[in-house]
Amino acid sequence: MRTLARAARPTNMSVMANDGKEPASPACSAHEMGDAYMGFLPRDELVAFLNTLLEAERAGARICQRTAREARDAGDENLAALMTAVRDDEAHWCAVLTQAIRALEGAPSSATGAFYEKAAAIADLPARVKFINRGQSWVVRELRKTLPRIRDDALHARMKAMLAGHEANIVKAS
Ligand SMILES: [Fe+2]
Question: N or C: which end of the chain has fewer CB within 10 A?
Fold first, then answer.
């Protein structure tokens, strides 16, 4: 678990001393305080957040799969290759999120985000790719907002990697 000594992230700084540079006591019991008090997401909210991302990533994987197929049918091999690569990444994050939710003893959602239907309704492929990138930007915003509130080191690292992966894919699809 994330410890107070590394937790510059909590929004509630009352647990800090020395102008916030060091914890009041290095051995201070971060986990004796509630996650919410510390500014971290409580477990239920974290599971809900991860499930929201899971549904969004599933929608992303499905729309990229569909777009790759349609691009191939239209003879656009470059777009097909790009969408296949992004689909693989989205599927990877689905697996990471599912594992993380299970690790928290939560139930992974089997739903697909509404984003899929909205994107699929856009027949023009370049316009759809722009819409997909908007969806990816939403994921980036959500992760940037929530990362400071994820206490667990391993999960924090995975979500940081997911953020970086999305930022890179947005550039590739722009
Ligand atoms: Fe995504």
Answer: C
Note whether 151 and 72 are within 8 A (CB). Answer: no
Is residue 45 located within the same domain as residue 86? yes
Residues 131 and 164 in one domain: yes
Strand partners, 22: 17
CATH of the domain at 116: 1.20.1260.10
- Enumerate residues with CB within 5 Å of ligand 1 (an ion): 57, 60, 90, 139
Please name the helix (run of DSSP H) or strand (run of DSSP E) that holds residue 84, with its range, or none. Answer: helix 77-103
Per-residue pLDDT of 140-156, as tens digits, reads 999 999 999 999 999 99
What is the 26 CA–ligand 1 centroid distance (Å)?
38
Report the alpha-carbon distance of residue 114 to residue 157 in Å, rounded. 28
> pLDDT tens for residues 78-128?
999 999 999 999 999 999 999 999 999 999 999 999 999 999 999 999 999
Whether 154 and 83 map to the same domain: the answer is yes
* Calpha distance 116→45 (Å, rounded): 24
Least confident residue range of 12-16, 130-134, 170-174: 12-16
Count of structural domains, the chain: 2
